[in-house]
Design goal:
alpha+beta, 3-stranded antiparallel sheet, 17 helices, 490 residues, 12 strands, globular, single chain
Length: 490
């Protein structure tokens, strides 16, 4: 839920525009917040000395971090410093003195800490757009309540069945329009489908004019997630705030209709709005619910499409893995046909090699590179002292691509997971969805949607992928949107 803000940026924004937007936002963030910082000692005689460098005055090492992000080895910033200073080191990033953790154990402890020790940290433009009551910002009992309600619903067989039905219907509708001899952009196709599935699960919205309106306003909204923190008319932040107001108005209308019709009262919840309306807490106002439905779209809007797109990319480059995946899914299709039984959500999730492909895509792709937390007090972890007010970047990518944890880490190898226990929390070296109290509640649904797409795609089509490259900063995406040429199977 608190994935690093770079995972939220528009994948359609040009690289140059994003670069200057990040730099501009960073400079503003520095001058707005520099007076709040206080000097802190990093060590005492009984604690480990944190090595590292704070870089240039004000700028720190941010530009080095960004420059490495645009290369084909974005983890090189961390690798270089890890060799010099160890797995946990100090730096200065995005306007704040920062402790960087590439140590799996240290990162796990930080992720599992409560709000007394660490809270999420975001740039000012993002906090302006989310508001004070966002689940991505709130802490304590209210956060636990909302996160628990949403998490339980996302795990429910009812929602998984609903997502399966919607995903399959929208996917097959989209595939019906795929013509041989015409290029298909996987990244675009998956974003279009996943957004509609997400909106249905969150607010019960079906395809139509309201869905298209919501989609247009949401794109305007997320365009300001990394912008100058200035709300004057004509600025990007102002435009994004206006778009959010329009989305809130639509969702409040949906909430009012539910209350009037009694759709969500004393009945099984059909979407997340129903779940929150059925809770008796006075803190869960209509305004808080509507705001949070929009905020929940932020991490969900890109993660599933990118997971699917990267899986297609890796499979296109690994014929052996594609062959095994295809055989496994064809066998399932034949078995269900013989039984005259439709595919259910647990069928899609029952295929071991398909799940290994998804797991390996998450590890190698690193859709979420890490999370940033802010220390609320001096915290000691594994002998390291993290001073109050400092930020901590737990860098998942460094752990996922560490050859001490994963053999040949830059190689796509789904077979590495065939004997692994992937139950929640059992693997500290694999954290694609975060962890602790802010573990992404939609991680099971992301796997389900990817499984559904892969099943129908590989059993109904052959394809040839055009050359394309993965861009890793400021958000993971395909440079050319993953163009492919498809041919239907007989």
């Amino acid at each position: 839920m608190d994935s690093i803000f770079t995972s939220f940026l528009l994948s359609t924004t040009t690289t140059t525009t994003i670069f200057y937007a990040v730099v501009a936002a960073f400079i503003s963030f520095v001058f707005i917040n520099k007076r709040r910082r206080r000097p802190c000692k990093l060590s005492s005689p009984s604690k480990r000395i944190l090595l590292g460098t704070m870089g240039w005055p004000f700028i720190g090492e941010t530009l080095d971090f960004i420059a490495c992000g645009y290369t084909d080895r974005p983890q090189s910033f961390m690798d270089k410093r890890r060799l010099l200073y160890g797995k946990v080191f100090k730096s200065h990033l995005f306007g704040s003195p920062t402790i960087v953790s590439t140590d799996a154990e240290v990162s796990k402890m930080i992720l599992q800490s409560d709000a007394n020790s660490f809270v999420p940290s975001y740039p000012k433009s993002l906090t302006e757009l989310m508001g004070e009551s966002s689940i991505l910002r709130i802490n304590g009992s209210l956060h636990r309540r909302i996160h628990g309600l949403i998490g339980s619903f996302f795990k429910s067989p009812y929602l998984k069945a609903q997502v399966t039905c919607n995903m399959r219907k929208l996917l097959l509708q989209s595939m019906d329009n795929w013509k041989e001899g015409r290029v298909i952009y996987i990244q675009d196709e998956t974003k279009h489908i996943a957004f509609q599935v997400l909106a249905k699960a969150l607010i019960g919205l079906d395809p139509g004019e309201e869905m298209e309106f919501l989609k247009i306003q949401f794109q305007k909204f997320i365009a300001g997630l990394m912008s100058l923190p200035i709300k004057l008319p004509g600025t990007q932040l102002h435009r994004s705030l206006e778009a959010k107001k329009k989305m809130v108005k639509l969702i409040l209308q949906i909430i009012r209709e539910k209350r009037i019709n009694g759709d969500s009262i004393s009945q099984d919840s059909k979407d997340v709005v129903d779940v929150l309306l059925n809770d008796k807490s006075e803190k869960l106002t209509d305004e808080l619910i509507s705001d949070n439905m929009i905020d929940l779209m932020i991490p969900g809007e890109d993660s599933v499409p990118l997971l699917i797109t990267l899986a297609i990319k890796y499979l296109s480059d690994c014929p052996k893995a594609l062959h095994q995946l295809k055989e496994e899914n064809l066998e399932l299709k034949r078995r269900k046909k013989d039984l005259e039984d439709p595919l259910c959500w647990d069928d899609y999730l029952s295929l071991p090699f398909t799940q290994n492909v998804i797991t390996e895509t998450l590890r190698l792709g690193n859709i979420i590179m890490g999370v940033i937390r802010k220390a609320m007090k001096d915290v000691e972890i594994k002998g390291y002292l993290i001073p109050k007010g400092w930020c901590v970047l737990t860098h998942f990518r460094s752990v996922h691509l560490d050859d001490n944890h994963h053999e040949s880490p830059l190689q796509f190898n789904p077979w590495r997971w065939q004997d692994s226990d992937m139950s929640s929390g059992s693997n500290t070296c694999f954290t694609p969805f975060g962890g602790g109290l802010r573990l992404c509640p939609g991680h099971d649904l992301a796997r389900l949607e990817a499984s559904i797409f892969l099943h129908h795609f590989v059993t109904e089509f052959r394809w040839v992928a055009e050359d394309d490259t993965i861009i890793n900063f400021p958000t993971v995406r395909m440079k050319n949107r993953m163009p492919i040429w498809v041919k239907r199977e007989n």
